[in-house]
Specification:
Blueprint lengths: L2 H8 L4 E2 L1 E7 L2 E7 L2 E5 L4 E7 L4 H8 L1 E6 L5 H7 L12 E3 L2 E3 L5 E13 L2 E13 L5 E4 L2 E4 L7
Antiparallel strand pairs: 1-11, 2-3, 2-6, 4-5, 5-10, 6-9, 7-8, 9-10, 11-12
Length: 157
């Protein structure tokens, strides 16, 4: 199989959209990602996967902390900003949750401290110990087959 076929197959898995954020010396750094999942309930652990070429990789290694911001359906522009898809500079305001930078209005804000680091292939997996969570009642932003989507109401037959 070639790289394109692999990427297309992985794109067939519908995911939420997150912005991973960290803070180094007062400067907040963020990146859009959908490579995120829960790992354990006891202790509360999550994992994020960061590519070797991502600028945020060294920042998380330095800070040993990160937040996962699960974006709401009305936050597509934030996803595009942190994915580098918008060329014009836009200032983004961050709030704080347990001292970690978080995005206001996200469906979930998850503050984490790095617990373990695994290098696998061309990515680094950060296992994060969850230190705090804030939830909002909003619909999530969805990504499927290379496009942003929204949840549809369930239809009962």
């Amino acid at each position: 199989m070639d790289d394109r076929q692999f990427r297309t197959a992985m794109g067939k898995f519908a995911t939420g959209v997150t912005v991973i954020a960290t803070d180094v010396d007062g400067d907040v750094h963020g990146m859009t990602a959908n490579a995120f999942m829960s790992v354990s309930l006891d202790p509360k652990l999550v994992v994020i996967s960061i590519g070797d070429k991502a600028r945020i990789l060294e920042k998380i290694k330095q800070s040993q902390t990160f937040s996962v911001n699960i974006l709401a359906a009305d936050q597509q522009e934030l996803s595009m900003i942190f994915a580098g898809q918008l060329k014009e500079h836009r200032e983004v305001e961050f709030d704080r949750l347990d001292g970690k930078p978080v995005l206001n209005g996200a469906v979930a804000q998850i503050a984490c401290e790095v617990s373990t680091v695994h290098v696998e292939g061309d990515h680094t997996l950060f296992i994060g110990r969850v230190t705090d969570i804030h939830l909002e009642d909003a619909e999530p932003l969805i990504f499927y087959s290379g496009k942003y989507r929204a949840l549809a109401e369930a239809v009962t037959v």
